[in-house]
Amino acid sequence: RGQGRQGVTPWRMVEGGMEAMTKEIEHLRQQNEALQGSVTSLRKELDVLRSREGGQGTASEHPGMESPLYMNGREFPLPCWCVDANLKFLSWNERSCEQMGYTDSNAKGKSMLDWVVGLDTRPSVQDVLERCMGGEDVELFEVVMHTAGAAGFSEEMVAIAPTPKRDKSGKIVGLVVVGRVVTSRVAMMQEKIRVAQELQILFETANAPIFGVDKDGLVNEWNEKVASITGYSKDEVVGLDLCDALVAEPARESIRTVCNEGLRGILTSNLECPIKTKNNRIVIVLIALSTRRDVTGNPVGVVAVGQDITDHKRAEIERSRVYEELANFIDTANAPIFGIDASGLVNEWNNKAAEITGFGREEVLGKDLVEAYIRDDYREKVREVLMEALAGEEASNFEFPLFTKDNRRVEVLLNATTRRDVTGAIVGVIGVGQDITEKRRLMEQEALLLQAQAANDAKSQFLATMSHEMRTPLNVIMGMNQLVMDTELTAEQRKFTEQIKTSAESLLFLINDILDLTKIEAGKLELVSIDFDLRQVMEEAVDSVASKALQKGLEICSYLKPTIHTQVVGDPDRLRQIFLNLLSNSIKFTDVGQVYILVEPEEATATHETFRFKVYDSGIGISEEGQKKLFSRFSQVDSSTTRIYGGTGLGLAISKQFSELMDGSMGVQSDVGSGSLFWFTAVFRKSAIPQEVQFPPFDIRSAGPKVEAVVVTKNETLRNSVVRYLEALQVVATCVADIDGAAKLPKTDGVYRVLVACPSVEAMVKGG
Prior knowledge:
Strand 3 (about 140-150) and strand 4 form a beta hairpin. By secondary structure, this protein is of the alpha+beta class.
């Protein structure tokens, strides 16, 4: 009974049922009033009967009771009959014949109880009639009586009112009975009672919360559903103030107000009522209020028929939260997102779309996307894609340019998705894009880079081929020139052949550099790994360039602590090549002063050792801008046609790559006019060959008298280098600038002085 018909929600059905029940109760009230009116009318007719009978004489005077009342039934509109003291019929008027189906002759002399009264009701009817025969006033009562009709015998419910019949002496000699057939009315009343009972059951068991309050706001109705959702039984809440005890804040006063309005006939529907449960939760009930009235139509309370929407409310809150999160996600997404309606007008525009185009959300909403923001050359293509999406054909990875506020071109990769309403009808398109402007630029750059790499590979291959082809005839030229130099030549001829030799060697160095460069670029240059003495490589490199330094009047010196183990495993040729490149550059760009090489151990592990190599010079220095392009191929600090210093610009680039192949690095520190420091690091594997430090061969301090060294040199760098070597021999050294300074040193008894003379390059050139 608590379930609704198809298409009707249960609470709506109950609400309708309550309205029907109210109408039925009102109808029953009206029917009851009509029946009461009939009873009143019957009693009035009975009084008339009694007064008439009183004026017509007694039964003894009229044994047949043939008064006008009985003989002419048309004068009385209701069934009427008379029985004697034994309850046998004496007379039966025409109205009785019509309603009961028996004629007066049929009825006369027959027992009322046996002939027309139903068997089940005979004892009670006999008791009432006998009490009436005894003079007791009897109220109207109902009795089941047998009737005869065309369809046969049947039972009817008859309301009868008996009154005593007296003779002149006042003795009761019979009864006058007036009746009315009320079968249909009783049946109707019973049916209405049954309907009311069913409606009450429906009320109690409905699958919707129903509760009611009286005029004072106290609970007087509380069905099973509201009990189940709140945990409070009917007995627990009846008599409680609904708003104070059960309605949660802050809706308490608003619910009280609508209840009071309901008592005045102002009805409310779709009102959310938060009700407190027994376990301190809140359930939300959507209620519709109806006024409750008594039989007189006066308001006596309010009935609320509701629907538990707690889960729906929570789902609605969750949907709102998800919607807000999605809206926030769309607004803050790191991708341009926009939407259009079915007419192509913008209705979505997130922050990223605003950022890349420069147009704010308020500027674009309601504008035609294609006409306002798509460049002319892509307008028709974009319109076609959007129209297809509006037709249900979604598009992905569609690339097009957007028109920005500052007239820039922004490349966007778009996925166009159809947007539908709850019915599935297409209402627009949502576009999720990606700003690929930078990606497109990089792709174009990558294409250019690939072209450049291909050109560079072709160039490298050409250079490698040409270098091989050039080296063969060059070796022949150098060999033949050497043969000429071995013969007797005039001074002029020797000068010419030496120039040929110098130029050929320079050209050979250049060719070798180009071959190394092409091997490095191709990734085909491999370092050898052999045992060698690092000190020896350094000293050989210094010896190779010493003559060039001497020719320019430059001091060149080196220092590597004598006690350091320098036997390592690596590529000595590539290390020597780095040394020669750095030393040659330092000598080339230094006109006055010195070139100094320093080697220091930096880091050691169980298997490898790292060295730091430093080449100082007192040359012209390098600007900060020049340092940025120093290690680039074919690049020079001064690349003008009027430059003083020649070169190909390959030496430092190749040296840096050699250093990196040795797991090291290379750098420079320099200021214009203050000289330069070139440094590089290299990692070598420790040698398995044991190395004995044989320097010094003996302890000078224990070889007789005390010995001191006097170092004579003008160059400060050379002086410091020699002193550091002597200190490694554990010899005390004194430095002076020249021989005169050494002669002026005071004599010390018991001390022998050893003179260590380091003549200047200038003196050596002059032969002094």
